[in-house]
Amino acid sequence: MADELRTAARLAFDALTGVVGIVQDMHRAIARNGLGPVGDLQSAMAAPIYGMVRVGLAAGSVVAETALRNSAQVLPDKVTGVLNGAIGDRLASHYPALATPLRLHVSEERPPTGHLVVFVHGLVHTEQHWWQDGPDYGQRLADDVGATPLYVRYNSGQRVTTNGARLAVLLDEVVAGWPVPVRDLSLVGYSMGGLVARRAVHEAIEARLRWLDVLRNVICLGSPHLGSPVERGAAVAALVLNGFSASAPLARLVAGRSAGIKDMARGVPCTAAPQARQRFLAATVAADPTSVGGRILGDLLVSTASATDRSQAADRDVVGGLTHPALLHHPEVYARLVTWLSSSADTASG
């Protein structure tokens, strides 16, 4: 982690250099369309200025990295989550010090139990979002149903299939090495995290991993199983911008969103484990979830149709009067978690 700030500085200067290139391309396109040959001459005269800006940014990057060489500070957790969600695929290949490896956070304050609940965060989040802005479902479940909460952190800008495959392997290692026999395992995924959890099950089925034997629940909170209209809108915007020479450089900027974000357009194919229950919980800003507005608006990011996906074998529920972020910290959501996890634990122990 010692070089995290240095890498962040290099990323910032590289991003600024990219913005300069976009501005120059837009300047060139606008000048050419509006002034013809005169515009081309104007662009040629401006080129050295853009070049000097790039040289200045390159020098600034070197100075910043040198100044931060001995810094032990790290980026704030929320910044790390946003960076990984927005461009995590490129971080992994070009700025690995900033790319989040998939790993598990385990609370050491409580003795381990054989009832594990694994929480998988959403896009541009980290595991700390489960407890940063409200009551932590995991610690409350430890008190109320005797579960041990485990929290996954992953690079949400990478493909859902990639993170699902890695999570499947990690869960196999956790169950095999847990200090007490695991009798009950449940996955709770928020938003993208639900897709990652379901993909982990899919990968485990393909590889015949042993942790499937103790899997009881796959709970998805506001997960876009059928995709998100927000991401589909971004894809359309990129196409529209690319249709005009003056705005085509901006299309590159929109198209640069991460592979993980692009996966949100249509969802990800997953196979369900027959011995486990899928539980899909959706939210809608409308007080009445059955109203037309409730079905259309959803939680403003994910529609109720996508979050409940009628093509899947699952228990479904919709909570009214909630936005997408409220699914992380709400008493009605927690009440459903307690009901689902208590019933499965009773079944396993019986």
Largest beta sheet: strand ordering: 1-3-2-4-5-6-7
Helix tally equals: 13
Low-confidence parts, pLDDT < 50 over ≥5 residues?
none
**CATH architecture assignment name of the largest domain:** 3-Layer(aba) Sandwich
> What's the number of domains?
2
What's the CATH topology name of the largest domain?
Rossmann fold
**Alpha carbon gyration radius:** 23 Å
Mean pLDDT: 85
Tell how many strands the DSSP assignment holds.
7
Organism: Lentzea indica
Pfam families: DUF676 (PF05057)
Domain DUF676: 115-232
InterPro entries: AB_hydrolase_fold (IPR029058), DUF676_lipase-like (IPR007751), Lipase-like (IPR044294)
Which keywords apply here?
alpha/beta; 13 helices; Rossmann fold; seven-stranded mixed beta sheet; 2 domains; 350 residues
Task: Give a quick rundown of the structure.
With 350 residues, the protein is of the alpha/beta class.
Protein model, in words:
The protein is of the alpha/beta class and 350 residues long. It folds into 2 domains: 4-74; 98-228 and 260-349, Rossmann fold (3-Layer(aba) Sandwich). Helix content is 53%, strand content 13%. α7 (192-207) links the parallel β4 and β5 (215-221). The longest helix has 32 residues, at 4-35. It holds the Pfam family DUF676.
